[in-house]
Design goal:
Layout (H helix, E strand, L loop, with lengths): L2 E3 L1 H9 L6 H8 L5 E4 H12 L9 H8 L4 E4 L3 H8 L9 H12 L3 E4 L12 E3 L8
Parallel strand pairs: 1-2, 1-4, 2-3, 4-5
């Protein structure tokens, strides 16, 4: 496993793959690559769905089963990740979700695949930023 998908990257790959650049699509489609997803990402998605901000094509439990293919490993929240999140140097946001996801990438020595411009230049983690493609309307 070399990459951690942040919430946006995972959602895009599962719901809107057409918004991913070709390089990211190829990476995610690579059958030899395994990706991590933080358990906190699942919580974020559940909360957005609960608040009506993220409609899903099916019930949440069923969607999680469908959206976690064999090459995606859910990474549990551990005390080590929490400590790392509390110690992130020069962190660019005050978002606890960002902190926990970046800390997960750091603890597991993974590159974070993200479209979040606030994390794009964070030099204390391996960040692989991508600019999403705007969907055609």
């Amino acid at each position: 496993m070399n990459y951690l998908l942040d919430t946006s990257a995972w959602l895009r790959s599962a719901l809107h793959p057409e918004t991913l650049p070709a390089s990211v699509t190829e990476l995610i489609a690579n059958p030899t690559e395994t990706f991590g997803v933080s358990i906190f990402t699942l919580w974020e998605i559940a909360k957005k769905n609960q608040k009506g901000k993220l409609p899903l094509p099916m019930e949440l439990t069923a969607w999680f089963k469908a959206a976690v293919p064999d090459n995606v490993q859910i990474i549990a929240l551990t005390p080590e990740i929490i400590v790392e999140a509390a110690r992130l140097p020069e962190f660019p946001t005050n978002d606890p979700a960002h902190e926990l996801i970046v800390a997960t990438a750091r603890v597991f020595k993974l590159s974070l695949l993200t479209s979040d411009t606030k994390l794009k230049n964070y030099r204390h983690a391996r960040i692989r930023y991508f600019k999403p493609i705007e969907p055609k309307t």
